[in-house]
Amino acid sequence: QVQLVESGGGLVQAGGSLRLACVASGRTSSVMAMAWFRQAPGKEREFVAGHTSLNGGSTGYRDSVKDRFTISRDTLKNTVYLQMNNLKPEDTATYYCAAAPGYTTSQSMRVMKLYNIWGQGTQVTVSS
Question: What ranges in the chain are assigned the alpha helix state H?
């Protein structure tokens, strides 16, 4: 089994930055797709950013964050990061790390049902 633990959330003012981290432990795989999703109160969970695999492949972002957020990885630490810059109040949500063993395409990486492993979530609140 793979376990995911997120950290790095907090309260920031608009225009500020946060870096989220997701540490994977257990039976991890270098071809495991890793992604960040978020869910705001009263809204559906949505894709934020992801890697198709930890050992390479493609990176993708939703349009609203592509110029502000950067996803990166450290394969030696089994960790995926989400650097969030120029945060906006509409970024306020619970952010979840998700993993899916196996090969994944850039398109399917964005689909929530692909992922069978989820972290507990970390809260990001952006004030105006």
Answer: none
Q: What is the chain's mean pLDDT, rounded? A: 94
Return d(Cα 29, Cα 119) in angstroms, integer. 16
Q: Which amino acid is at 66?
A: K
Task: Show the tokens assigned to 108.
Answer: 């399917």
Mean pLDDT computed over 50-65: 89
Is the torsion defined by CA of 108, 113, 117, 120 positive or negative?
positive
Tens digit of pLDDT for each residue in 83-109?
999 999 999 999 999 999 887 898 999
For β-strands 122-127 and 10-13, DSSP reports them as parallel
End-to-end Cα distance, the chain: 40
CA–CA separation, 108 and 29 (whole Å) = 18
